[in-house]
Amino acid sequence: MGWLNNLSLRLKIFLIPVVGILGFVFFLLYSFFVTNRNAERLEFIRDQEFPVLQRAEANLVNLERLQETFNGAVAAGEVEALSAAADRARLIRDNFATIARLQPEQAATPNKLGKDFDAYFNLADGFSRGMIKGELDFGKAQPTIEEMNTRLK
Q1: What is the C-alpha to C-alpha distance for residues 42 and 29, in angstroms, rounded to an integer?
Q2: Is 91 buried (19+), middle (13-18) or exposed (0-12) by CB count in 10 A?
Q3: Quick one: which of 52, 65, 54, 147 has its CA closest to 102?
Q4: What pLDDT is attached to residue 1?
Q5: How many CB atoms lie within 10 A of CB 68?
Q6: Burial tier of 131 (Cβ tally within 10 Å: 0-12, 13-18, 19+)
Q7: What is the pTM of this model?
């Protein structure tokens, strides 16, 4: 800082606003880059993360309603009511496909969940149809129920 002593008073006074302006410019550039990164992150969340979250939440609701549909069909003894379950299962499968499309780098997870769901749905549909038609062997029901519960986890 010895060079500062060699400057005239006029230059020293002029140096104060120059340092302030340089500090402001650096702060402005830093803010610009941080704001750009935040904007990119928010766009990513808006375009990919939030739709995935919406589809996952919809799948949870649809899964609960699917179970209610199976229970209602069995309680009413109507095989036709199981078509509503198939429609709801189609919605769940579509949501898994959309999630895999939105996040291709993580597509293995929704694909695996989709396969587990298909296995669950096939077991639950067959179990419900067997109960409605009176063709279910209740001696073999417990392993089927355990397998359905395993597929849901």
Answers
A1: 20
A2: middle
A3: 52
A4: 63
A5: 13
A6: middle
A7: 0.76
- The DSSP element (H or E) to which 112 belongs, if any, is helix 108-133
Q: Tell me, what's the pLDDT at 135?
A: 80
Instruction: From residue 8, give the alpha-carbon distance in Å to each of 4, 15, 18, 145.
Output: 9, 11, 15, 90
Contact 66, 128 (CB under 8 A): no
Look up residue 106 and give its two tokens: 């993580």
Rounded Cα–Cα distance for residues 125 and 79 (Å): 10
- CA–CA dist 44, 26 (Å, integer): 27
Which residue is it, tokens 């279910």? 136
| CA dihedral for 150, 96, 68, 135, sign (positive or negative) | negative
Lowest mean pLDDT, pick from 6-10, 12-16, 54-58 = 6-10
Distance CA 98, CA 56 (A): 10
Half-sphere exposure for 45 (CA within 13 Å, toward CB) = 6
Is residue 59's pLDDT more than 70? yes
CB-CB contact of 128 with 74 (8 Å) = yes
Three-state SS for 72-86 is HHHHHCCCCCHHHHH
pLDDT in tens, 67-82: 999 999 989 888 888 9
